[in-house]
Amino acid sequence: MTETRFSDLLDSPLEVINVGLEGFAEELLADGGEVVHVDWSPPAGGDVEMAKLLSKLGA
Amino acid sequence: MSDIAHRIDQANDEALRRMLVGEPVLVDVIPAAEAMPALKDHMILHAGPPVKWEDMCGPMRGAVAGIAMFEGWAPDLETAARMAGEGAFDFQPNHHFDAVGPMTGMTTIGQPVMVVENRAFGNRAYCTINEGLGKVMRFGGNDAEVLDRLRWLRDDFGPAMGRALRAGDGIPLKSLVARGLTMGDEMHQRNVGCTGLMLRALSPAMAKTASDLGALSKALAFIGGNDQFFLNIAMAMGKAIMDPVRGIEASSIVTAMSRNGTEFGIRVSGTGDTWFTAPVEMPEGLYFPGFTEADANPDMGDSTIVETVGLGGFAMGAAPAVAGFVGAGNASEAANFTRAMAEITSGQNPEWTIPALDYQGVPSGIDIRRVVETGLAPTINTGIAHREPGIGQVGAGVVRAPLACFHQALRAYAEKMGVA
Under an 8 Å CB criterion, which residues of A touch B? Predict the structure, then answer.
């Protein structure tokens, strides 16, 4: 198994999957990076009470 | 999959099945008192969840005063308003009487109502006749022109349309709506295609049963001159389709969405006929010349039953012309509304398809769990009334159902399911 060092990651062209906040993807794109953006947000917009109910209701 | 998830899925499958097998047929036009025996003298049915006179918005109050004059309960608007404040009228939601009404939604004993029968289940639903655009009672209009038109609908047009329908076996609506979707209608803010199809379907029998050619000509011109004539039929159809979906244990599907100009309310199959309400929101849209957002009344009407069955804002992809009319962006963006609504519904309607979306069925069966999970509130296409009584329609736009209704509904539903 090959060990990848963090510095190796920064030395090679970045290929990024960005999850959630689209602003990060836009910044990377503006700097010429290659980005796939995944439109995601936490269930119920992060409302803990609603998320718990949804979980109990099989959603 | 957990037991509860399986139970909910089964219940929601049954809810969607009942929606899809509905067979709505326009069968008659009769006086409201005959259609709804529980509707009594001095009773006024309104749009939305229950609302008291003191909480009613301007156009709703204007319509109440106007309809009281129409029924002969008050000699003028001022007296009618005073009587309303003194409790002379019994205010009830249309939805509690198997009925729906657009915008202010006034329904009283003397008005004619169109009857849609769901032949798959045997239930009936009712809606008054669409009055046309501009200064009309559904937008809070109440002057002599408005009341004269209502009298003509009661005395001439309604009986003529009823005679024509009774001369045949009714007009099936499911296939008619399917054709309307291919003609650019979404059945809420665009009904041009379906109104034309209805005119074609009604004309022969109206001619055959007419006794006066002048009256016939006026009646046909009224239908042909009102692009929104079909809206009220689509609403009664929606109500007739959704009522058999009520009361399915464990179903999280929405059976009604409705607004009274002050509050937005929803009902959910698994929680019975309880309303879950929150303050209505302000539509974003385009205004007729001379009017601005400062003139607008917040969201109002039972017409959201159209979205509840998967049409209106849910079928925006079928009606790119509407996107421009309601200020929702470019025609090419219309499909995005339909795609978004597919994320909060439990299925598609294979009989109501959208050609521009490769014949995707309209998103059907709003699941409160998906609404809360995604934060995507149902999109509604709507007319906009002036905030003051007596003026009428000032624009059209798009509005979202308040998420707070769905949060409340989810709490009650979870309690009902024993997991709160």
Answer: 41, 43-45, 47, 50, 53-54, 56-59
Query: What is the residue whose two structure tokens read 């609403």?
Result: B235
0.90 exceeded by the pTM?
A: yes
ipTM of predicted complex: 0.89
Please, are residues B159 and B113 in contact by the beta-carbon 8 Å criterion? no
Task: With a cut of 50, list the residues of chain B below it in pLDDT.
Answer: none
List beta partners, residue B46.
B93
In this prediction, residue A2 has a pLDDT band, given cuts at 50, 70 and 90, of: low
Residue B28 contacts residue B73 (beta carbons within 8 Å): no
Give A-chain residues touching B375 at CB under 8 angstroms.
Answer: 41, 44-45
Contact criterion met (CB < 8 Å) for B414 and A58? no
Q: Which two tokens stand for residue B301?
A: 């009407």
Between B326 and A30, the more confident residue is A30
Indicate the pairing of strand B300-301 with strand B123-128: unpaired
Highest mean pLDDT among A9-18, A35-44, B399-408: B399-408
Task: For chain A, give the secondary structure using H, E and C.
Answer: CCCCCHHHHHHCCCEEEEECCHHHHHHHHHCCCEEEEECCCCHHHHCHHHHHHHHHCCC
What are the structural domains, with CATH classification, of chain B?
250-416 (3.90.1700.10)
Does B4 contact A59 at a Cβ distance shorter than 8 Å? no
What are the phi and psi torsion angles at B345 (to 5°)?
A: -115, 160
Substitution target in B400, B410, B415 with the highest count of A β-carbons within 10 Å is: B410
A and B: number of Cβ contacts within 8 A: 44
